[in-house]
Amino acid sequence: MVKRAASLVQAWTEDLRGRIPDPHLAAEDVRVGVFYTAVQLSTGHVGVAFTPRGLVDAVCCPRSAASAPPAGRLAGQPVWALAEYATSPVPLRRAVGVAALNALSSLAVERFGVPGGLLLRGLDALQAADVRPEDRVAMVGAFAPFLRALKGQVTDLWVVDRHPDALKDEERALWRPPDQAEHVLRAATVVVVTGSALVEGGVEVLLEASRGARRVVLAGPTTALWPVPFFRWGVHVLAGIRVLDGPKLLRIVGEGGSGYFFEDAAEKVAVVRGSAQGATPAPVPRS
Asked: What is the pTM of this model?
């Protein structure tokens, strides 16, 4: 069995650094938006991450400025300097770091493909999860489209989220508080975890509790497409986005976009561990 690093983000960083060691690769643009954060490399590759609004100090200005990334000095820095923020104790810095790692992941996928997996275009997390009527499904994060599709279609359905108001009144019975997450995940046969856990923290605990599940999916725009460390941590599917138009996505993020990437700025893709029945590999052209 492959020995895992103590932190999934640490393992992700180390794996990418071993494959893309260029110390001069720069972050050309950085946007910290209301809902998402984006980093563009000098190669043109773009990565995004959830902006953790609820964890940010909203008091202006000296206190919040002291904990935020150094605004005005991020663009132009070596991207590996920004990637180090991914393990920062400060939420906004983690968002910048994870976005930088996602941009590096996009570059790695272009250069090396998806080792040990299959990249499928147009496939969302629910499709990739291969959910069956007998499954007990646990979601960490209230994915509204998945809720609509799964209600009444599986044996059990639970939603772990900090905010019960994220569910409609008629869905409230499905809600479970975060302190019940490990118990719920251990009972599930299919687990869908929001990629924002890479920013908010605790993803390792969630994946450890999901080890008995038939299918573990990391989902959402914050999800990495570089699969190697995630497969080692027990993830079966990485359901994220591939950026098609970097400048447009940066503009959407900077203007407060909350995930409206799919018209022509990005497309849904999934990286599935091993092979998938009826699936065929898709080449990954330059963003």
From this structure: 0.90
DSSP helix/strand/coil, 152: coil
Confidence of residue 276 (pLDDT cuts 50, 70, 90): very low
Give dist(CA 5, CA 18) in Å, integer.
14
Q: Residue 244: phi, psi to the nearest 5?
A: -100, -35
CB–CB of 158/178 below 8 Å?
A: no
Residue type, 178: P
pLDDT attached to residue 63: 55
Beta bridge mates, 37: 32, 49
Count the neighbouring beta carbons within 10 Å of the beta carbon of residue 58: 8
- The residue written with tokens 């561990």 in the block is 273
Distance between CA atoms of 247 and 116, rounded to whole angstroms?
31
pLDDT digits (tens, 9 = 90+) for 83-132: 999 999 999 999 999 999 999 999 999 999 999 999 999 888 888 888 99
Q: Quickly tell me which residue has 């499928």 as its tokens.
A: 120
Q: How do strand 36-41 and strand 46-50 relate by DSSP bridges? A: antiparallel
Q: Are 240 and 269 in contact (CB under 8 A)?
A: yes
* 266 strand-pairing partners: 243
Residue 191, CB-side half-sphere exposure with 13 Å CA sphere: 27
CB 191 within 8 A of CB 138: yes
Reference 110, options 275, 247, 284, 231; nearest CA is 284
Mean pLDDT (whole number) for 15-19 = 97
User: How is residue 226 written in tokens?
Assistant: 């570089």
Please tell me the distance from the alpha carbon of residue 98 to that of residue 40, in angstroms, as a whole number.
12
In this structure, are residues 184 and 139 in contact, taking their beta carbons and an 8 Å threshold?
Answer: no
- Cis status of the peptide bond prior to 60, with omega within 30 of 0: no
Percent of the chain with pLDDT over 90: 74
